[in-house]
Amino acid sequence: MPAAIWSGAISFGLVTIPIRLLAATEDHSVHFRRVHLEDMGRVRNRTVCSIDGEEVTSAEIGKGYEVEKDNVIPISDDELADMPLPTARAIDVVAFVDRDTIDLIRLGQTYYLEAVGAVAAKPYTLLRKALERSSKAAIAKYALRGRERLGLLSVKENAMVLHQMHWPDEVRDPAELAPAPVELDEGEIERALMLMDTMILDDVSGFHDEYTEALEKLVEAKAEGKKPAAPKAEAKRSGQVVDLMSALEESVQAAKKSRGETGEDATVHDMPARKKTAAKKKAPAKKAAKKASGRKPRSA
């Protein structure tokens, strides 16, 4: 388990729960260093003053806010520490909401909340079970890395989880990104739904990072002085715009074939065109179609 990022308490009404904040995710990316290709020496970033061109040490570096061009005012760490921040050492639960009402785009970094000491075990478990049974999530305010944040408390197995949330004004309006209105045929929607049905999974734990795996093999081969394996050739995708109905039908059949499904179930038929008939003649036609669809095919 990683080291604690922050320690404090959950404030839940009159209940106080001592906790530690732990990162809930890990970074498994392959990281590179910037090097001088001639001798493989590591290249470092120098901190240089833009005015006198001199290199400065960390002790000489502070914070400044640019009020306007060429007008920067200094802000000291002591001034920031004296700022009134009631949530500096507490995760203050301010409301409870239905989980389904949370816009997922507002969720950011995720942390585990670890109960600290025996005294925290009972109230920690109480709040966790209350969240489970109510199907609610808790909205909380807390301070981390020099600013006040909004968070969402939820449950994963036997632990509580804190999801960092973006403030409402931090989420951009996507309205301007939406395409112009288009006409869709009902058959196209039905085929899209068929394709979705062939791709349904009960568990997504089987997915893994193929790029990182390939990158690790490349590094391993070069470290051993071997020639890296040639990448697998992938079929080039056509840049042409194809008929949407045909593309959906091919996608449905390809998805079913990959799952080993064959036979009549893999065929997607065209939607029959609606005939213009009088209103009084529609009912018998529907009954006849219903009877025909209910007949079993005769054995040869």
Key descriptive features of the protein:
alpha+beta, 300 residues, 27% helix, two-stranded antiparallel sheet, 25% strand, 7-stranded mixed β-barrel, disordered C terminus, 6 helices
Describe the protein.
The chain has 300 residues and is an alpha+beta fold. It is built from 6 helices and 11 strands. The chain has helices spanning 77-81, 118-134, 186-198, 210-223, 244-258, 279-294, and strands at residues 6-12, 15-23, 35-36, 41-42, 63-68, 71-75, 90-98, 107-115, 136-144, 147-156, 159-165. The strands form 3 sheets. Strands 1-2-8-11-10-9-7 form a 7-stranded mixed beta barrel. A two-stranded antiparallel ribbon has the order 3-4. Strand 1 and strand 2 form a beta hairpin. It is extended, with a radius of gyration of 30 Å.
Please summarize what this structure is.
It contains 6 helices and 11 strands. By secondary structure, the chain is of the alpha+beta class. The strands form 3 sheets. A 7-stranded mixed barrel has the order 1-2-8-11-10-9-7. Strands 3-4 form a two-stranded antiparallel ribbon.
Task: Figure out the total of helices.
Answer: 6
- Using DSSP, what is the number of strands? 11
Query: What shape does the CA trace take?
Result: extended
Low-confidence stretches: 263-300
Q: In percent, how much strand structure appears in the residues? A: 25-35%
Radius of gyration: 30 Å
Distance between the termini: 66 Å
Mean pLDDT: 78
Main pleated sheet? 7 strands, mixed, barrel
Order of helices and strands: EEEEEEHEEHEEEHHHH
Give the structural class: alpha+beta
Helical residue percent band: 25-40%
For the largest sheet, list the strands in their spatial order. Answer: 1-2-8-11-10-9-7
